[in-house]
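Side project, low priority. Logging it here so it doesn't get lost.
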Amino acid sequence: MAVSALAAMPQAVNLLDAGSLLSAFGALGIAVVLFAETGLLIGFFLPGDSLLFTAGLLCVPGATGPAHLSLPQVLIASAVGALLGAQTGYWIGRRGGRALLARSRARKLHEGAARAEELLDRYGHAKAIVLARFVPVVRTVLNPLAGALNVPARLFTLWQIVGGAVWTLGLVLAGYALGSSVPNVDRYLLPIVALVVVVSLIPLVLEVLRSRRTSQGETR
């Protein structure tokens, strides 16, 4: 009796596993996760890139993954979560400034803040806001940092919409296109998601290496 009751209990949701999140919460979960990742500093660890790509794969008719999703719902939820999250992060930064980041002890957040500020200085506000969407952790920190640095609200809103739309819709549709063109691609869901995670980390790694080369050159 106890064994059957345990078997009937739903498994705990793994916040780091895109398949687990989508299976438990569907399109609504996408909106919530992207809002937290792009709007709240506590969401820096969430799997935005792999979540979007996996959701696109699971929208393909006949997919046999952990869940089957509706493409229109996923596209809407992705865009809404990412855009509202970024705007919320910006206004949190405007109100709280750097004090919010200073209270955090997460090393990744402070590293992300340094890279986000470097992006703003190197590329200018518009390009940095768009590029940050494609760099994990940096996309979490740049929004409140832009608010703290008093980036004009209209400029931030315009370019975060552009960057958010390209990032979310592009990854979802890329997953959908792959799933539509490759038969039974959902059988290889785990390695594909792993590949997406690795690819999404490439800009972060390149930025770290470039920063190290720059700092080493300055110390010589």
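Brief comment: Confidence is low (pLDDT under 50) at residues 1-10.
Revisit when time allows.
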